[in-house]
Amino acid sequence: MTGVIFLELMVIGALLYNLRVLLEIKRKKAAIAGEKLKPAISWWDKLNKFRPVEQEVNIDLGHDYDGIRELDNRLPPWWLYGFYLSIVFACIYLWRYHVSHTAPLSGEEYQLAVKAAEVKRAEYLKKAANNVDENTVKYLSESTDLQAGQKIFVTTCFPCHGKGGEGGVGPNLTDEYWLHGGSMKDIFKTIRYGVPEKGMKSWKDDYSPAQIAQLASYIKSIKGTNPPNAKPPQGALFQEEGAKAADSATLSASN
């Protein structure tokens, strides 16, 4: 590939050199014949309607500044038409944004963009919340989440666990003893998949993962509330990792 590119460059260079030689020969012939080649008019000159040098005497204003003469040239057409278009655009802009108010101003456009972003954010958070499972679930401490979890609890869970979580057919949910683990992940998993052999159904078809996370968070929040008529502890003692570390540190200090 490099060789091909180099060969093409060599060919182009040779063609340019031949073109230069031919132009030089033509220029010499014209000089011998007493002819003078007329300078070619470029597209830039045509676009700006520049006058030939021979006509500059007609537009000379007589002002000379260190050899620089002032000429009465018209503005270039492209600049002049661009200026006219900018005036038309300004009139349309003024009418639309400040008179008829058919389009939002920059501040209003910003507010609309913020509202649209909030809608998208809410939709994203809603989808993200429903993507939670027993491996990614976290404790929800917001009051709105705990209230939503409480609402589910008092309408679904109280027949077996009591209205305050004191226990009934099912175990007490306010003490530190658990039959199937007391971490957020354990509680979420127990609610989601149930314990069929002990009569607890799976709730994954009744509630979304976000709702199960709210319910599990509410159950975690009622630990230590000591409701009346609490059922005796069942299962194994459960302590959070942080609490275990604190107990170990206290025991070491006492020794």
Automatic annotation (TrEMBL):
<dbReference type="GO" id="GO:0009055">
    <property type="term" value="F:electron transfer activity"/>
</dbReference>
<feature type="transmembrane region" description="Helical">
    <location>
        <begin position="6"/>
        <end position="23"/>
    </location>
</feature>
<keyword id="KW-0479">Metal-binding</keyword>
<dbReference type="InterPro" id="IPR036909">
    <property type="entry name" value="Cyt_c-like_dom_sf"/>
</dbReference>
<dbReference type="GO" id="GO:0046872">
    <property type="term" value="F:metal ion binding"/>
</dbReference>
<protein>
    <submittedName>
        <fullName>Cytochrome oxidase subunit III</fullName>
    </submittedName>
</protein>
<dbReference type="InterPro" id="IPR038414">
    <property type="entry name" value="CcoP_N_sf"/>
</dbReference>
<feature type="domain" description="Cytochrome c">
    <location>
        <begin position="144"/>
        <end position="223"/>
    </location>
</feature>
<keyword id="KW-0408">Iron</keyword>
<keyword id="KW-1133">Transmembrane helix</keyword>
<feature type="transmembrane region" description="Helical">
    <location>
        <begin position="78"/>
        <end position="95"/>
    </location>
</feature>
<keyword id="KW-0472">Membrane</keyword>
<dbReference type="InterPro" id="IPR050597">
    <property type="entry name" value="Cytochrome_c_Oxidase_Subunit"/>
</dbReference>
<keyword id="KW-0349">Heme</keyword>
<dbReference type="Pfam" id="PF13442">
    <property type="entry name" value="Cytochrome_CBB3"/>
</dbReference>
<dbReference type="Pfam" id="PF14715">
    <property type="entry name" value="FixP_N"/>
</dbReference>
<keyword id="KW-0812">Transmembrane</keyword>
<dbReference type="InterPro" id="IPR032858">
    <property type="entry name" value="CcoP_N"/>
</dbReference>
<dbReference type="GO" id="GO:0020037">
    <property type="term" value="F:heme binding"/>
</dbReference>
<dbReference type="InterPro" id="IPR009056">
    <property type="entry name" value="Cyt_c-like_dom"/>
</dbReference>
<feature type="region of interest" description="Disordered">
    <location>
        <begin position="223"/>
        <end position="255"/>
    </location>
</feature>
